[in-house]
Write a structure and sequence with these properties.
- This protein has 22 helices and 14 strands.
- It is an alpha/beta fold.
- The chain folds into four domains: 103 residues, Gyrase A, domain 2 (2-Layer Sandwich); 162 residues, 3-Layer(aba) Sandwich (Rossmann fold); 81 residues, no CATH class; 119 residues, Isoleucyl-tRNA Synthetase, Domain 1 (Orthogonal Bundle).
- The longest helix has 26 residues.
- The radius of gyration is 30 Å and the shape is globular.
- 43% of the residues are buried.
- The structure holds one RNA strand of 76 nucleotides.
Length: 571
RNA sequence: GCGCCUGUAGCUCAGGGGAUAGAGCAACGGACUUCUAAUCCGUGGGCCGCAGGUUCGAUUCCUGCCAGGCGCGCCA
């Protein structure tokens, strides 16, 4: 079944241009060697920024003019003439020469009608395609250490990661999301020690708080929570220091993990799997991997440590796998984890990391390369920082001073839909200024409201139609060729671009494209709404416009859905 | 010093070899007896950081420089 009309038409035009050039070359109107330019890729067709230049434009004449030995505009008109004489004409109404030698293609009313009909028949599937052919992709994101609350960059990662997974699924990939839980490292011991210290303090014992301990209030709360539970308090009083620390490690870990899971669930971010580093280690996967690396000669011993020759595989320098004290650095289990992902059948891995992890990529890439996986198996998406803005001023955050805004704090302050949209609306590689006042604002300035309002307006029109005794059967067979106003065509054009937009966003790993698209779509819809009265005296036109609004409602909903944002029927 | 990211309208940012570089906000001026004015329409506003290079064509690609952010552990 066709799912992208624009793609279909583009392919047809490209093919026709190629045929036209071949015909002209054979007929001697163009030199024979111009066809060399055609070898390989499809003839380029772009969507002009300015709609006056038609639905498609080809710069092919500019590219081959030199070889053809004729001015670009002359080459363009030869091609256009040949093309219009031979091409299939269901959708192409005219091919015009413009500017320095572009061939602009204007599409027919049939295209408008078929576009709207396609959207209405595909419904919530509109925008999806099978490009990925079921390739298994794993997106790992957030993966915050289980030693404290989720922060604002984690919230950005959650929104971006979740949207990317939805995009990949829409593009036909078998995409899965995973949260890697670092529950085995030194930091977990530091957490245990921190909670234990607070426990001793609450008991009134003199006990030094660890130098590098976690000083957040939550650490004290966890200790207090344990003491307030009589059954736990009893057991604790019978434990020696080692046993108590060990108890607190598990107790705190469980609490914090639950907390993180709850925060993300509230944020509507779902993970297919929470993968425990501890469980990975328990399988012996790390030892096995290191054994294989040693056997392959990718390691050496120096200063009592075991090193990975990562610089042989593109890293800046070699990395320690096993420290001189016999413990692993994070590199060893992390590499084993990535190997594990691939062993589960994923052929493509995407890691979404915070800006402080950029050095990490070289190590992981080197590791996977040394294991023999092809380049491009792992893609790292580095998120840049988030600055919260309040009243036009950056919100100062200092861990030391305890002025720290967590993801939970943020979600208490701004609605979930707004937070998700704001985190996704910028390029991942750009710093993000998050305007708290704007995200909270119930006004036209707020882009989330603006898009949601477009959906609500569609619903409102249908409520009116129903009140007027019009049912969906009445417009199912509307004459869609009646849609001809500029604002109607702008809307159709924008909706027709949605499948391309979804695919590009997925392939470029650029969720921000969909955020932008949603805003643009809402904008053309609102223009249409004020330009064209939908329910009016002209019955045929009313039906055509109801069908158009039905399509718009679908596309707005699909765009919001891919970002995990609600589409409200009333506002 | 090295690495990553970013320099586009007053502000926040899109775009990413192609036609006259876009949007929102801010400023100014208009539009509701009609499906939600939470909206729409219009006006002004730009050496696309600087300098070279690649080519039919560069804001876009390459190199160098300048500026800002972040990072550079046998921490994760």
């Amino acid at each position: 079944m066709m799912h992208n009309l624009m793609e279909h038409i583009r392919g047809g035009i490209s093919h026709s241009i190629e045929q036209a050039i071949r015909t002209l070359a054979t007929a001697g109107e163009l030199p024979g060697d111009v066809v060399d330019v055609l070898s390989g890729a499809e003839v380029p067709l772009e969507v002009p920024k300015d709609p006056r230049h038609g639905e498609f434009a080809s710069p092919i004449a500019l590219a081959i003019a030199k070889r053809a030995g004729k001015p670009p505009r002359e080459v363009a008109s030869l091609i256009a003439r040949e093309l219009m004489a031979s091409a299939e004409r269901r959708y192409v109404e005219a091919a015009e020469i413009a500017g320095p030698g572009f061939i602009n293609f204007r599409l027919s009313k049939q295209w408008v009608a078929d576009s709207v009909a396609l959207i209405r028949s595909r419904g919530s599937e509109y925008g999806r395609c099978d490009f990925g052919r079921g390739e298994r992709v794993m997106v790992e994101f957030v993966s915050a250490n289980p030693v404290g609350p989720l922060n604002v960059v984690n919230a950005r990662a959650a929104a971006v990661g979740d949207t990317l997974v939805r995009l990949l699924k829409a593009a036909g990939y078998d995409a899965a999301s995973e949260f890697y839980v670092n529950d085995a490292g030194r930091q977990v011991e530091v957490l245990a020690e921190s909670v234990y210290a607070r426990y001793m303090e609450l008991k009134g014992d003199d006990y030094a708080f660890p130098e590098d301990g976690y000083r957040g209030e939550y650490v004290r709360d966890i200790a207090a929570g344990a003491m307030e539970d009589p059954r736990i308090a009893d057991r604790l009083s019978a434990m020696n220091a080692g046993e108590a620390r060990s108890f607190f490690r598990e107790y705190a870990l469980g609490h914090i993990l639950d907390w993180q899971k709850r925060s993300l669930a509230e944020y509507q971010v779902h993970f297919d799997k929470w993968f425990s580093e501890r469980e990975l280690r328990a399988t012996g996967a790390v030892e096995t991997m290191i054994g294989e690396m040693e056997a392959a000669g990718h390691t050496y011993r120096e200063d009592g440590a075991l090193w990975f020759r990562s610089s042989d595989f593109g890293d800046d320098k070699d990395r320690v796998l096993v420290k001189s004290d016999g413990l692993y650095t994070y590199v060893a289990p992390d590499l084993a984890y990535h190997k594990n992902k691939l062993s589960r059948g994923f052929t493509k891995l995407v890691d979404i990391l915070g800006p402080d992890h950029h050095g990490y990529e070289g190590r992981m890439q080197a590791g996977l390369k040394s294991f023999g996986y092809p380049d491009g198996t792992l893609e790292v998406l580095l998120l840049q920082l988030v600055t919260l803005m309040r009243e036009g001023q950056p919100v100062k955050m200092s861990k030391r001073a305890g002025e720290f805004i967590t993801m939970d704090d943020l979600l208490e302050e701004v609605p979930r839909d707004a937070a998700r949209y704001f985190f996704v609306m910028r390029n991942t590689s750009s710093h993000l200024d998050f305007d708290l006042d704007l995200a909270r604002a119930q006004s036209m300035d707020n882009p989330v409201w603006y898009i949601q309002y477009a959906y609500a307006r569609c619903c409102s029109i249908f409520r009116q139609a129903e009140a007027a005794g019009i049912s969906s059967d009445d417009w199912a067979s509307a004459d869609l060729t009646l849609l001809a106003e500029p604002s109607e065509l702008d809307l159709v054009r924008k909706m027709a671009a949605f499948p391309d937009e979804v695919l590009s966003a997925a392939l470029e790993r650029a969720p921000s494209r969909i955020a932008k698209y949603g805003l643009d779509l809402a904008s053309v819809f609102h223009s249409f709404y004020s330009e064209c009265r939908v329910i009016g005296d002209d019955v045929a036109l009313t039906m055509a416009r109801l069908a158009l609004v039905d399509a718009a409602k679908t596309v707005v909903a699909n765009a919001l859905n891919v970002m995990g944002i609600e589409a409200p029927e009333r506002m």
